Amino acid sequence: MPRLGKLEAAIMDILWSSDGSLTVREVLEKLPPQRNLAYTTVMTVLSNLHRKAMVAREPAGRAYSYRPTSTRQGAAAASLREILNASDDPQSVLMHFAETASEEESTVLRDGLARRAPQS
Q1: Cβ distance 20 to 57 under 8 Å?
Q2: pLDDT tens digits for 25-84?
Q3: pTM of the full structure
Q4: For residue 73, which of 22, 114, 117, 16 has the smallest C-alpha distance?
Q5: Per CATH, is 6-68 categorized as 1.10.10.10?
Q6: 12, 66 in Cβ contact below 8 A?
Q7: Cβ(55)–Cβ(66) below 8 Å
Q8: What's the chain's Rg over C-alpha atoms?
Q9: What is the pLDDT of residue 33?
């Protein structure tokens, strides 16, 4: 997952919180009014998120409606994977994380690894 700017993150939060696809106008209406953004600004950000494969779009009349291509959790996991892939020593990164994980995080990791199917 590409890193998101503040406005991209705010728009993704809106899309992740939505029950379905949203048009540019609907996203703009859900943004805090103090941001005072133009319709074209939100349209550009959504186009950029589409180019980054963060959102899918489909025709909605004369406009598009947008929806996230992954869940918030899936996007966060993809970011972690990207960090590991960019490291020259992913094992050390994982070990450092494991050493700093809380007891609750450690339990979640152990449970997840126990449920994971064996790889051949």
Answers
A1: no
A2: 999 999 998 888 999 999 999 999 999 999 999 999 999 999 999 999 999 898 888 889
A3: 0.80
A4: 16
A5: yes
A6: no
A7: yes
A8: 18
A9: 86
